[in-house]
Design a protein that fits this description.
By secondary structure, the protein is α/β, with parallel strands linked by helices. 34% of the residues lie in helices and 20% in strands. The chain contains five helices and seven strands.
Length: 207
């Protein structure tokens, strides 16, 4: 997919405030500081489309971007903040779950996982919740440039082994590096093919 246009639409504090759900939408989520904004910017070939920060928990609203004037890319707040109050954390969790469960044009959720770490309980629990909730999702390993390729491969295999304990079939897996702009093209290819499928089959999101 060639990115011709990518523009910020709005930030929403409630899922009901999100833009009209009339075109395909693909959301990105992950633990705080997983490199979500950097990956989005690399994919969109835009230095500061999504706001990056060294402070975990910077994204606290649902941010919508219109891409090529025919699909939404959604930047969701991270889960599992360490540096916010329990009340704030519950508010974020409510915002995220309500959006994911109620947004009828959400085609796929990309769950970002830091490739440098062994399988984390919080990521595994979130992935399990997606499965139990019937949410279409993919797993995206980030920051692959921070490790030697063989270590990345091992960490991904460890994740697959862990997931196979409860999953028979695994979702699509992507290995990415925002720094080297690697892997994002495969995600965009998936989005393009999915959008073409929706168009060819006259699938609409109108109620």
């Amino acid at each position: 997919m060639i990115i011709k246009t990518a523009e910020f639409v709005k930030s929403s504090g409630k899922w009901q405030e999100c833009p009209e759900p009339n075109i395909p939408e693909y959301a990105f989520i992950g633990r705080s500081n997983v490199g979500k904004s950097s990956l989005i910017n690399a994919m969109m070939n835009h230095k500061d489309l999504a706001k990056t920060s060294g402070t975990p928990g910077k994204t606290q609203l649902i941010n919508h971007f219109l891409v090529n004037e025919n699909w939404y890319l959604t930047d969701l707040p991270g889960y599992g903040y360490a540096k916010v109050s329990k009340v704030q954390r519950k508010d974020f969790e409510k915002l995220i779950t309500n959006y994911i469960l109620n947004r009828r044009n959400l085609v796929n959720l990309f769950v970002l996982v830091d490739s440098r770490h062994t399988p984390q309980k919080i990521d595994l629990e979130f992935i399990q919740w997606c499965g139990e909730s019937g949410i279409p999702f993919s797993i995206v390993f980030t920051k692959a440039d921070k490790l030697k390729p063989n270590v990345v491969i091992k960490n991904v295999e460890d994740y697959k082994t862990e997931l196979h304990k409860t999953w028979e079939d695994l979702p699509e897996l992507y290995v990415t590096s925002a720094e080297k702009k690697e892997g994002g093209d495969k995600i965009l290819d998936f989005i393009q093919k999915t959008n073409e499928f929706l168009t060819n089959n006259n699938i609409s999101f109108d109620e």
